[in-house]
Design brief:
- It is a single chain.
- By secondary structure, this protein is mainly α.
- Helix content is 64%, strand content 0%.
- The protein contains three helices and no strands.
- Helix 1 packs across helix 2.
- The longest helix has 34 residues.
- It is flat.
- The two termini are 46 Å apart.
């Protein structure tokens, strides 16, 4: 989930909307379990609720090694990318040509010159 907002208030409203939809989903599922939407939906919801998602030991072991390998590869790529950026900065290839800083004293007018 990626949210791009220019205002903090809009970002908070977006999170509130996502949370609201999440709770609507939970309420609808509970209503299905208590037979509000019919017997067929109640039966399906109860079956989903009882379902156990258990993986076998072989899958867990394989998944653990795969996750460790992926973490190692990802970490190595990040570290080597960082090393390339640092090396390019040391050789003046990735330094800023111009730096612009804007300072405003609207909050504390007494700091102005």
């Amino acid at each position: 989930l990626i949210m791009i907002q220019s205002d903090v208030f809009e970002l908070l409203l977006t999170f509130a909307g996502v949370e609201f939809v999440y709770h609507l989903d939970e309420v609808a599922f509970h209503l299905c379990k208590v037979n509000f939407f019919g017997k067929l939906n109640s039966h399906a919801a109860l079956e989903i609720d009882k379902k156990l998602w258990v993986s076998t030991k072989v899958q867990k072991r394989c998944s653990r090694y795969l996750n460790a390998f992926a973490l190692f590869v990802f970490g190595s790529l990040m570290y080597s990318g960082f090393a390339v950026v640092v090396n390019n900065q040391k050789t003046n290839q990735l330094l800023c040509k111009q730096l612009q800083v804007e300072i405003s004293d609207e909050q504390l007018a007494s700091l102005g010159l």
